[in-house]
Amino acid sequence: MAEVVWTREALSNLDLIVSYIHQFDPEAAQRFARALTDSAASLGEFPDRGRPSGNGTRELPIVPPYVIRYESDGGIATILSIRHGRQSGDD
User: Fold this and answer.
1) Strands, sheet with 3-6, edge to edge from the N-terminal-most edge strand
2) Which structural domains are found in the chain, ordered by start?
3) Taking Cα atoms as reference points, which of 4, 1, 23, 22 lies closest to residue 78?
């Protein structure tokens, strides 16, 4: 089982997205956060399940339209960022 590690950028992305959704629907924000963290945790068991996205990174679509961008070396899945699917992958 791989270890799942969150970068500061990814945690900041999560906080900003959840805060934004919370302004309009607090329950939806809570559901989103739960779905996203569950998806991220699943990378511990299946670190290569996301689609390759170049530069050694992978993307895991989560709650549409958001995507988890991460790196996996087999033993560690490092979550690099969470972004809207229409954003450029060049962080």
Assistant:
1) 3-6, 76-84, 66-72, 57-61, 51-54
2) 3-84 (3.30.2310.20)
3) 4
- pLDDT tens track of the chain, all 91 residues? 889 999 999 999 999 999 999 999 999 999 999 999 999 999 999 999 999 998 899 999 988 899 999 999 978 999 999 998 776 555 4
Cβ(79)–Cβ(4) below 8 Å: yes
Pairing of strands 76-84, 3-6: parallel
- pTM, full prediction: 0.88
Task: Please name every residue paired with 4 in a beta bridge, in sequence order, or none if there are none.
Answer: 77
